[in-house]
Amino acid sequence: MNISLQQVSKRFQQHWIFKQVTYDFSTGNAYALLGANGSGKSTLLRVIAGMQAASKGQVIYTDATGAAINTQQAFRNISFTAPGQEIIEELTMREFLDFHFSFKKPLQGLRIDDIIALTGLQAAADKPLGDYSSGMKQRVKLAQAIFSDTPVLMVDEPCTNLDEAGTEQYRTWMETYAKHRLVLVASNDVREYFFCREKIMVESYK
């Protein structure tokens, strides 16, 4: 799936977050949306994902043949995660992943037990997510996105709350499982977007 932004702008009340962003994102490439805290990179990522509407302009999704995909269909092809993403804390990790992957298939060859093993959280797999530390929760959020079988992967500040081992785990996952996908990373930390060849400074669109 490819994504095209055409003169996309977003404002809250009278304040413009960004203006007239025109950019094409294509399958098989990785892009970093860069900027300091409050620059609007997370908002832009949510607009690209179809989670928030643009104030002006269009976000156009197309398949490999160039045929248009509507927003509802596009959502099925996008995996997304952010530090503020809600998870159902009453569920165990195993229950949460079972629930998530009833809507989106896991990557080919991976079962729920395999994904749990990849996170390194086997000992806590049957404990409520509400009992997890912030770093453990972040691993679960990343796992549900990265291991979903979708052509588009979007991650917002993915290493938030992760220790050094968790950050290295994220790097390994992206190197192994994000190839050949359209990847967008909203970040101001090079450790999170080290693999992105194209970089977009959100401040350039003020």
Note down, in words, how this protein is organized.
The protein is of the alpha/beta class and 206 residues long. The chain has one domain: P-loop containing nucleotide triphosphate hydrolases (Rossmann fold, 3-Layer(aba) Sandwich), CATH 3.40.50.300. The protein has seven helices and nine strands; from the N terminus they run E-E-E-H-E-E-H-E-H-H-H-E-H-E-H-E. Strands 6-7-8-3-9 form a five-stranded parallel β-sheet, with helices on both faces. It has a four-stranded antiparallel β-sheet with strand order 2-1-4-5. The longest helix is centred in the C-terminal third of the chain and has 14 residues, at 164-177. It is globular, with a radius of gyration of 17 Å. The protein starts with a strand and ends in a 5-residue tail after the last strand. The model has no long low-confidence stretch (mean pLDDT 96).
Query: How far apart are the termini?
Result: 28 Å
Instruction: Going across the biggest sheet, name each strand in turn.
Output: 6-7-8-3-9
| SSE run | EEEHEEHEHHHEHEHE
Rg, Å, rounded? 17 Å
User: Uncertain regions: pLDDT < 50 for 5+ in a row?
Assistant: none
> CATH H-level name... which superfamily?
P-loop containing nucleotide triphosphate hydrolases
The major pleated sheet works out as: 5 strands, parallel
The total of beta strands comes to 9
| Tally of helical runs | 7
> What characteristic shape results from the CA principal axes?
globular
CATH fold type: Rossmann fold
Provide the helix percentage. Answer: 25-40%
State which percent range the strand residues make up.
25-35%
The mean pLDDT is 96
Structural class estimated from helices and strands: alpha/beta
Architecture per CATH nomenclature, i.e. the level-2 architecture: 3-Layer(aba) Sandwich
For the record, the count of structural domains works out to 1
Question: What is the name of the CATH class?
Answer: Alpha Beta
